[in-house]
Amino acid sequence: VESSIPEHMREAWRKYSPQGFKTKDEFEGEVVRHIETTLARSLFNCDELAAYSGTSLAFRDRLIIDWNKTQQRQTFADQKRIYYLSLEFLMGRALDNAMLNVGLKGVAKEGLEDLGFRVEDIISQEHDAALGNGGLGRLAACFLDSLASLNYPAWGYGLRYRYGIFKQEIENGYQVEIPDYWLDFNPWEFPRHDVTVDVQFYGWVNKYTDDEGKQVVSWQDGELVTATAYDAPVPGYGTPTVNNLRLWSSKASSGEFDFSKFNSGEYESAVADQQRAETISAVLYPNDNLERGKELRLKQQYFWCAASLHDIVRRFKKTGRTWDEFPDQVAIQLNDTHPTLAIVELQRILIDKEGLEWPKAWDIVTKTFGYTNHTVLPEALEKWSVPLIQNLLPRHLQLIYEINLYFLQQVERRFPKDRDLLSRVSIIEESTPKMVRMAYLAIVGSHKVNGVAELHSDLIKTTIFKDFVTVYGPDKFTNVTNGITPRRWLHQANPRLSELIASKLGGYDFLKDLTLLNKLEPFIDDKDFKKEWAEIKYANKVRLAQHILKTTGVSVNPKALFDVQVKRIHEYKRQQLNIFGVIHRYITLKGLSAEERKKVAPRVSIFGGKAAPGYWMAKTIIHLINKVGEVINNDPEIGDALKVIFLEDYNVSKAEIIVPASDISEHISTAGTEASGTSNMKFVLNGGLVIGTLDGANIEITREIGEQNIFLFGNLSEDVEDLRHHHFYGNYQVDSELQKVFDLIKSGKFGDESAFGALIAAITEHGDYYLVSDDFDSYRKTQDLIDETFKNQEEWVTKSITSVARMGFFTSDRCINEYADTIWNIEPLAVADEKEA
Ligand code: H53
User: Fold this and answer.
1) ipTM reported for the complex, 2 dp
2) What is the Å distance from ligand 1's center to 569 Cα?
């Protein structure tokens, strides 16, 4: 063990090395100390924010101790690590999670009470870490939780955006975006000013032969931007493992070619350079499932890939191993194509800096990388224009062409004279301008490619990557169905349900082995258990109703059926189908007599989600939902029979309130468009039932919980293409009940009808690409069935419990173990003193 401190002096270090609090008294001592000294506040001006800060600092101290030990242990163990590269980590709040993972929430609750605070109020002071858009970013966060909980040596690498996903406000029914500056006080991050990497952009490539006759390639000039590491601890549940999430922040480099301007008196322009550099990590692009090809986005991608790879290579080189051993030490997973440049960057390092021969370097590269595809939507597949890359990363463009050349030669040898195949699989698309197809580059540069649910993994093999199955054979392509962490999405979000389950299963082991939930099945006839189950759901609904009243001013009846659709607003996710269904329900209710209306099962339709700021159609959908809500919620004839709520600013911490409170949640994408979906899993795990299409993970959820426990509807993915064709070439007619909905909107009932013209025309005139009309009838009928079923609470609760009992498969722990075994080839690192959770 190397250390700069001589052995005989280390005793003092050991003696004073902090242990962290364990008891309530120690906790209170730490909180007060932090408030009075770290924050320079006192008993007399300690508000909830200060109490949050003191509490977080106390827990942070505890985590740091285990974090340091984990990092040391992993370095000494010297075994293979997984590096998860993701442009998004949608972490949400950290304090509650830290309390539960170290098993000291009870201590904190009592300690805070002594100090005059309620733990829930303190927890809710925290600003969400919202460095992501939706499913992709939240999946990365669940994966980090599982990696740590399962003791895998793992690091996340991402960007430290100064602004996370925007905050959404609704004004007059329209979405307004507010910047999310989240770094004012963030106790969970540690700047590592000593860990920096200079990243190069622009410039030109110099190829020459040196004095010894060797070919040298050098990328020269351009500008340097410095990446500084900011680390955040990622605690595992019930284990001392605390992994690292490293996020890079950009600033102008003090290196070679920038600051000369200061000396030559060009102060303002030097400051402008500085600001330009800082822009790279300034803001998260707010698009989900949409790529717009902006230069700054490409800069972000390279900046982050280059810094991360430099860091990984530096760590590897310290071990003194030979390059052959790199893939035995390092696995890198690409979360979507966003980090694909990492493939090119590693090849560049090995060839240009380390002097390896091409084939050997490429062998190392492909053994190192794995690529996860998360979408088949054409508008989400990344392509970068050749001139853009040429200008920004001239050396990388050369390497991409070379990678493509070797790849196409290999294809040509196996499939001689199939010129069509060659042009179809080429990494370069021969368009004007030429484009680099990032997914193809990611496939060629990885040893495994996976989709995120069975249907999706099948679809990529038969549609977008079909030709690559021909070239490589089917084994390169695999499936790892997504999962969610039961720690945050059950234990943290729904503590009473977690406790009830633990009381039946004899402890909290199910949080580490979710398949144990199946031991609940014998209790489905237990009257008291069922009663308590239903009471917990009701209490969660009361809590959500309070939130709704506070934020929207609308009072909803917690006894009504809560029907929830919360996710990014996107035409393929079909919130328009839902709101058209709501309007249809309204029309039906208006047609009933007051007596008949009293017999109807009351319903609250709850929507939430952000629209990308430039996605006009999605914003129109939000507008319509709000306008429909205004009319229905204020119609005295309707009363409790129907309420329509749009919840502002849906994010992770709001999901923790919403998810446990649903009776039904909607996962109703056009079949074949939602790669997996993960909120479907969260809702079912919390005892909510699902209305859904046969899409993404809905299919596997159905397989696990049983068809009788889910409300499926709509066309199948294999029929979508024909239906779309028919819309254009057959005699297409809009569903007659849907037409009534359109007529009501057009009558101006929900305000200026022209605002919604495009939404209707997309269906009536432009081919109804998302099959809203085709699925409307079965959607409505399924909703009617839901009303009927909900009337029988006995049966409903049975479905709820049975479903939860069968959700074991959907833990992200299962998912991470699959990645570890079949893609990364890594092992957990044993920890001696497993703590009690
Ligand atoms: O990734 C989730 C899937 C979901 C899919 C989502 C996603 C994004 O959030 C952003 C970009 C992208 O390509 C895919 O839409 O179906 O569950 C995690 O895999």
Assistant:
1) 0.99
2) 13
